[in-house]
């Protein structure tokens, strides 16, 4: 047995084993979450007796269970689609069809990427529609009409083509023209693209989907400006977004980069919280900047993407990388788009096993941001705001501890409030 054939077989076995192991672990974790939440559905946890009603607690439990069960169906379907693309030859068939129609070259490779994205989107469409118009609507969260959903879908498709195809073409060109170190040049182009996107998103992209208006509550505006001045933070403006046109979920966030930073409040958030509670939520977000969490995440993203591009650069030159994942590489045409797609399909399968590490770091950052907010504003206001947000978003107060370690980027309410009380 030749060495490339051995490597191909080993990759096939490793991919299949990782896929099955990951699938079993995900089903096990989801079943633990469902059982744990259902078991504690009947009574509000003691620390929340005075703040959360039994009906709200049970709604959160039912919402969590419904989402988790729906996630299992999505997981099963997603696994079937992944196998269809890879080991069952779907990507290989699509590539051959496009080669016959377009020949080898840039247009065929861009067509392959576009067709893959379109087919993948259509495969996920029933689940997207069910989640929005059945699951979210059942629990009173969906505010989106069919007309608005269709408009968003068309805008997203056009925007994806206008933004995605040029950067894809640039990376494909670099893969073919920049020599063995193409991956370094491609990484630089990708990072520059992401930084540019952070600059233009608040001003040019976000308004395509949502309406933004300056915060007109003068008392709240003065309070927020005083907080930001006290914390040494500057933003280009304070804006209110019409989140209520799509969902009843509430949020607030910072967006942009450098001089384009702006503070955005969902209109649903301002309706639900007092001025003091809004200030406390904003102080939490400022805590992320004060502790340089945003910069740390950017540096981590830069480093991981560099490693990813380097790995892709090495794998793309190995025949067994293609054959081991169900694709016959082109002999007389570039394989760059194939390499990108196979890498995107395989990486999450193997990356799942280290998923608890980044979410653990994220939970640590949330605790640090909470501590900063308590130091800058009222801890009682932050606690009250978090309880309202947990209740209004139907977030369960009793998640399974092991499920939390794998998936929760934010600590459960009980842990956050206990830390605040201790502080």
Written overview of the protein:
This protein has 423 residues and is mainly α. The model has no long low-confidence stretch (mean pLDDT 92). It has a 4-stranded mixed β-sheet, sandwiched between helices. The chain is built from 16 helices and 4 strands. 73% of the residues lie in helices and 4% in strands.
Short description:
The protein has helices at residues 3-39, 54-85, 90-102, 106-138, 146-177, 182-209, 218-231, 267-272, 275-290, 293-315, 319-323, 336-351, 356-376, 379-392, 401-407, 413-422; strands at 212-214, 238-241, 252-255, 262-266. It is mostly helical and 423 residues long.
Output mean pLDDT.
92
Tell me the overall shape: globular
- Approximately what portion of the residues adopt beta-strand conformation? under 5%
Compute the number of strand runs: 4
Distance between the termini: 64 Å
Tell me the strand order in the biggest sheet: 1-2-4-3
Alpha plus pi helix count = 16
CA-based gyration radius: 24 Å
Helix-and-strand structural type: mainly alpha
The residue ranges in which pLDDT falls below 50 over 5 or more consecutive positions are none
